[in-house]
Amino acid sequence: MNARLIVVCVCVILISASGSWAGDIVEASGSVASASVTVATAVGALGDEGPIGPWIHPKISSGTRDKLQTAVRIATERIEEVEACGDLFANLGADGEETLKRTLYFPVSAQNGKDGICRKAAAYTNVGGRSTFVCEEFSWLTDERAAMFVVHEALHNAGLSEKPLDRRGMTSLEINTMVGRKCRF
Hints:
The chain is of the alpha/beta class. It is built from 8 helices and 5 strands. The protein has a single domain, classed as 3-Layer(aba) Sandwich (Collagenase (Catalytic Domain)). It is 55% helix and 8% strand.
């Protein structure tokens, strides 16, 4: 139980520390309190061993769930088959397939979606965080574009920072361009 509490605390700290979006984002918005509740729920649901593959919150709509599952499958294939795509993760000291397997996908709350994150992006991940927050608009993307965003967000999970929070980092658009080129999207 103490290990779970530590994981929850670390996740909450990471969620509140920094963030990156799969979109051209200018500022963060969201509720640390609601994020801590969702992280606590995920940790409780996962048990001590964690997920075997990506975990998708049950409140994510079926259309978004279907798009995520397809996008993760495509992203995993690219990471496995396209060396330059896998190298994006290796350069961060991470394994791309493992990063995708341990991702937790949460819906963006209605409160933060329409006027916040989802106005500017389809998904959001804190740098170094396991949780990716997905907007309903994600389901409207093509499969290829959704897979590109999955890789983009997984790179943040692996530690890739982004402007404006990291003034020396790449912009969201630059990351999308890099992922598109290296992973052949």
